[in-house]
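Hi Y.,

Following your request, here is the sequence exactly as I used it, all 423 residues.
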Amino acid sequence: MSDLALGLPLAGLIGCLLLSAFFSSTETALMSVNRYRLRHRASQGHPGARLAEKLLARPDRLIGVMLLGSTLANVAAASIVTLVTLRVAGEHWLAAAEGVLTLLLLLFGEVGPKTYGALHAERLALPAAYVYRPLLWVTYPVVWVINGIISALLRVVGVSAEKVASHSLSSDELRTVVAEAGALIPLKHQQMLMGILDLERIRVDEIMIPRSEVAGIDIEDDWEQIMATLSEAQHTRLPVYEGDLDKMIGVLHMKRVARELARGELDRDGLMNLARQREPYYIPEGTTLTQQLVAFQENHRRHAYVVDEYGDVQGLVTIEDILEEIVGEFTSLPQGVRRDVHAEDDGSYVVAGSTPLRALNRSLGWTLPTGGPKTLNGLIVEYLETIPEPGTSLKLAGHPIEILQIADNAVRTVRIWPAAARP
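Below is the corresponding structure, written out as tokens. Let me know if you'd prefer a different format.
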């Protein structure tokens, strides 16, 4: 066999190997390309991204073209090797030649190209879209027949090729994407995105100010005590009630009180009339933060009173409390430590028992359990199954804790060390 006659089959064989490599690499690239990045580039007007997105909208047709081209290239390569071997060396060398071809196809037609396609998916996928679009038109009749047969077989087992699986991400999957974004998203922004995603899983009773900590005015108190409460108030809105927070008259806005005080016309009846101008806004304790944030916006409210199934007030939640779950504490204290958390020189913290566990974890970066009780007091009492005495020591989630104060059958203050920090 002459050199010229041998050169043509060799060139054909190399061409078949290149075609096999092209189909293998682009198949992997198109199937593994980041769909959301592809959609973003398509929305920005990138023509290759638009073509790739259209092709991936029907992956059954695209895969049909890829496998058809790859199969034809591999069959052609095998045929060339068989013909050349029979003419040059005889049928005794046929098995060896096929073995060499199999190795070449495995290395240069499958493993190598597929690995490159997986590592550089977008670099290959967008240019490949320009090739596959016309190929799909040319081979459409053959692909249509093949896909028709495959679709019929899939329907037998309850799978429809017409219903392409949705690529929408669940909340948990989106959390994973944000967590793995790395340097692409600054840490602070990652924390904010995580906070937004967590809103649908957190209930208002997990972040509310407990009932015992809600500042308000008991209209049955002495007038001097009421005036003292008004003068020392640190909030712009205060509940006004008769003897008990469950018997709320209304919500008092300090701006209106200031006007009446300036005129010298404020008395007990006037205070009650001012409170009645704003009815309290009650919400059930199982409301999620996502629902409540929308409710605040729709009702033009900034705070709400959380009630249990019996209608008893359990606490207070404000729009600021919800926003803090997203952006962190609104505070000027160092390292975001809350007002009811005081750092000590020995590395411990003196903490109010009413502090919400979520707020404590967020402020100090701890991982105290939040699946049960919502406050530090509740967590300690649940663990001990009794109300402890001052001086009691215990260990929770690796944190050494010392009870400092007990009042009104509740833990008022504790000293708590970071996990494994106490000598």
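The first strand starts at residue 209 and ends at 210.

Thanks again,
Q.
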